[in-house]
Design brief:
By secondary structure, the protein is mostly helical. It is about 35% helix and about 0% strand.
């Protein structure tokens, strides 16, 4: 959903499974929470209103001047 074009060299359990793509910014948690809320609302339909979930794709690449 949101990553930088960087090769990750770490060996932690949560490292990227895709070579050349790395989540190297603290806002990844916010993206995860938004996706989790979207999934919950879609699966349960336990919501009586309208929810707007706004993502900003490629924010990192834009911030890095790419």
């Amino acid at each position: 959903m949101d990553c930088l074009p960087v090769h990750e060299t770490g060996s932690v359990s949560y490292r990227s499974r895709h070579d050349g793509r790395m989540h190297a910014c603290g806002h990844d948690g916010h993206t995860t929470m938004l996706l989790g809320a979207a999934r919950y609302l879609a699966e349960t339909r336990d919501f009586g209103g309208t929810a707007y979930l706004i993502f900003q794709p490629a924010r990192k690449a834009a911030a890095a001047g790419r």
